[in-house]
Amino acid sequence: MPAESVSILKSISSGKEYPLDEVRFTADNGELLDVIHDFEAIKTRHKISKEYFFKKKSVINDQPAGGVWHFKELVLPDIHNDYVVSKQEGNTRLYRSKKVSAWLGLKFDKFFLKHEGENPTGSFKDRGMTVAITMAKHLKQKAVTCASTGNTSASLAAYASEAELTGLVLIPKGNVAAGKISQALAYGTKTLVVNGDFDDCMRLIKEAQEKLSAYPLNSINPFRIEGQKTIIWETLMQLNWKVPDWFVFPGGNLGNTSAFGKALFEAYELGLIDRMPRFAVIQAEGASPFYKAYKNNFVGLKSEKAETIATAIRIGDPVNYTKAVRSIKWTNGIVETVTDGEILEAKAYVDSAGIGAEPASCATAAGIKKLVASGEIKPKETVVGILTGNILKDPQVIVDYHMKSSNPNANPPHEIEARIEEMNKYL
Ligand code: F0G
Question: Which ligand 1 atom sits closest to the C-alpha of 389?
Fold first, then answer.
């Protein structure tokens, strides 16, 4: 890193500043930290503009690097490429779907699903992980750790392996989808199954960062947020830098809510966009502390015991609360809840459109459905929904849904004798 770095860590409320390469995740008073870049200084190095990003060809370590590292000068400008641990994350598709847009009551050419489940380990976590693990290497850390409802642990495991760091993940017993645990085990990280929930795991991680010198890669780590910002910038580029009316996405630990707000705030500051879209953050009804705080004018967060079929967002005490509140204020955003039944119905539509996503991701579609019905989202508005995780992460939910014919969109398998007439019955 150059002696004069253009980036610092800054406490989000008190404004206290720390050097970028100090190993810390919160300020001395416990507040969350932002990575703040000096855009004026960055603009003297690069002519940052919409065209700049269209024309730029990014290469990192001799490989094409679209996605996250396409925006390196706004993510980690001063970190040498040699430290970058990348699996070419990002470059995810922006789908349109006649079936899903019609079901939601939106226009086909104005509704998009950005599929973050198409990242290397099947979720958006890889965008944050590539940046945070790069910093772990830069900061000469030996061990990396996280609390996880599954996707972070899968991502950490893959990146720790690539970076040759010791990985240790904590997952709550009985509430992590099979696909995700399999990944953590297969990629070779040490997996600890905790007798408790995600919030208990998170508490342990915070303690471990002080007592065990293990570098946490949860979204409390401000570098995770820097990587996840690129979901928004990449989408804006795919829309020719035209700002949609809405970004809709699920909220759990509220890392994405924080990252997406910061991405838009910075894009506005840099003159890449000229207005802010609105956010709709969707929580599962049984895991909705952020929704309740929103309804109470953000007077404070009351943690709760979380329960939902969408295990990825089964979180009752989100660590990024204060950053997420800021994002809602910046974007005149709203927070909504959906039931598990609504999530499953939305999932059946997203899946049967040939797109598919894990349950938490489908809170996005369920939320849009509810907000269109209530008139909050207007049928002619442009809406981008973020699908956060891959359909294959949680096969059990799919099997359970389709094996029960009482579910409205169930598509159960049929057993037949090995005869052509039997086959013909189903054509
Ligand atoms: N969707 C999926 C598929 C997730 O895995 C998560 C979080 C979220 C949404 C919520 O995102 O925390 O940024 O609000 N999963 C974490 C994990 C907590 O451990 O994998 P958020």
Answer: 3
Categorize the per-residue pLDDT at 232 as very low, low, confident or very high, splitting at 50, 70 and 90: very high
Whether 331 lines ligand 1, by a CB cut-off of 6 Å, is: no
Angle formed by the axes of helices 230-238 and 255-269, nearest 10°: 60
Closest CA to 265 of 310, 232, 312, 305: 232
Per-residue model confidence as pLDDT tens digits over 324-377: 999 999 999 999 999 999 999 999 999 999 999 999 999 999 999 999 999 999
Sign of the four-CA dihedral 186, 153, 181, 85: negative
Tell me the CA–centroid distance for residue 236 and ligand 1, in Å.
22
Q: Is 390 in the pocket of ligand 1 (CB under 6 A)?
A: no
Q: What is the largest CA-CA distance in the chain?
A: 77
Pocket residue to mutate for ligand 1, from 114, 125, 145, 151, most atoms within 8 A of Cβ: 151
Instruction: Return the beta strands (E) in 238-297 as ranges.
Output: 246-250, 278-284
Place of tokens 């909705």: 288
| Cα gap 112→341, rounded to integer Å | 23
Ligand 1 centroid to Cα of residue 197, in Å, is 14
Å from CA of 153 to ligand 1 middle = 11
3-class DSSP assignment, residue 407? coil
**How far apart are the C-alpha atoms of 379 and 142, rounded to whole Å?**
51
pTM: 0.97
- Express each pLDDT in 300-333 by its tens digit: 999 999 999 999 999 999 999 999 999 999 999 9
Distance from the first to the final alpha carbon of the chain: 64
